[in-house]
Design goal:
Layout (H helix, E strand, L loop, with lengths): L2 H18 L13 E10 L2 E2 L4 E6 L10 E4 L5 E7 L1 E8 L2 H4 L8 E5 L4 E2 L2 E3 L1
C-alpha cells in the first residue's frame, strides 16, 4: 500500500468517528425505562428502621430525571421504581443523627429491566 492510500484510509476512519461520535456510555445508562427495585437496608449489621432510601440515576441526561426517595419500612425493607441502569443510593433520616458520616456513603445499584433485588449494607 502506498502512502496516499494509507492516509486516505486513516482519513476515512477519522471521518467515521467524527460523524458517529465516540460515545462510550452503555445503552442502559441512557435509558428512560423504569424498573422496580426492592430489598432491605442494614446499618452496621442491624436492620434500618424508618428513614429513607434515595436512588439517583447516573449517566448523562438521566441525571436530570431526578432522584427517587422512598421510605424504609420498620422491618428494614423498601421498594422503589427508578430508571434502569446505574443508580447511586444513599440513606437519610434519624440514623444520620447517630452516625452523621453515613450521609456521605453512597452505594451503586445496577437496575435491570426485569427488576432488581438489592440488599443495601451500610458500614
Amino acid at each position: 500500500m502506498n502512502r496516499h492510500h494509507f492516509r486516505a484510509g486513516w482519513a476515512g476512519v477519522l471521518g467515521t468517528l467524527i460523524l458517529t461520535g465516540c460515545d462510550s456510555t452503555p445503552a442502559a445508562d441512557k435509558s428512560t425505562t423504569e424498573a422496580k427495585v426492592a430489598g432491605s437496608v442494614t446499618v452496621k449489621g442491624a436492620r434500618m428502621s424508618g428513614g429513607e432510601v434515595v436512588f439517583t440515576p447516573v449517566g448523562g441526561a438521566r441525571e436530570t430525571g431526578g432522584s427517587r426517595t422512598v421510605p424504609v419500612k420498620f422491618d428494614g425493607s423498601y421498594e422503589v421504581t427508578t430508571l434502569v441502569g446505574k443508580n447511586d443510593v444513599r440513606i437519610q433520616g434519624a440514623v444520620l443523627k447517630k452516625e452523621p458520616t453515613l450521609g456521605y456513603v453512597t452505594k451503586t445499584v445496577d437496575v435491570q429491566p426485569s427488576g432488581t433485588v438489592a440488599h443495601l449494607e451500610f458500614p
